[in-house]
């Protein structure tokens, strides 16, 4: 029964990430429409997210990305953050981070084997 539970979690996470991507697209934040400089910033956020999640396990897939995005949104909303209105994006950290999660979700699962990332780089 474990495989069915995993498949359900994976499917629910993919739907959650698709909904997040759709919400960001509706306010004008789609990775495909970003200026090169802003896309480079989002790519840096994506690399940071990948490294954070990889250091906590050996897989960066839909389940992990959806959980990370939920955590970012929860903390941001508790701090008073509001999603930007259409055309009013000012490059805030939360929006960039969520967009980076969507970019990683589009890229698919990343497997990290031991030795690929040096944990001392982050201290």
Describe the structure.
Pfam families: DUF6401 (PF19939). It is a single chain. By secondary structure, the chain is mainly α. It has one domain. It has four helices and two strands. It has helices at residues 2-26, 36-55, 62-78, 93-107, and strands at residues 59-60, 110-111. It has a two-stranded antiparallel ribbon. Helix 1 (2-26) packs across helix 3, helix 1 (2-26) packs across helix 4 (93-107) and helix 3 (62-78) runs antiparallel to helix 4. The longest helix is centred in the N-terminal third of the chain and has 25 residues, at 2-26.
Query: What's the helix-strand series?
Result: HHEHHE
Strands of the largest sheet, in order across it?
1-2
Outline the low-pLDDT stretches: 111-115, 117-123
Q: Name the shape in a single word.
A: globular
Beta-strand percentage range: under 5%
What's the number of domains? 1
- End-to-end CA span: 40 Å
InterPro entries: DUF6401
Pfam families: DUF6401
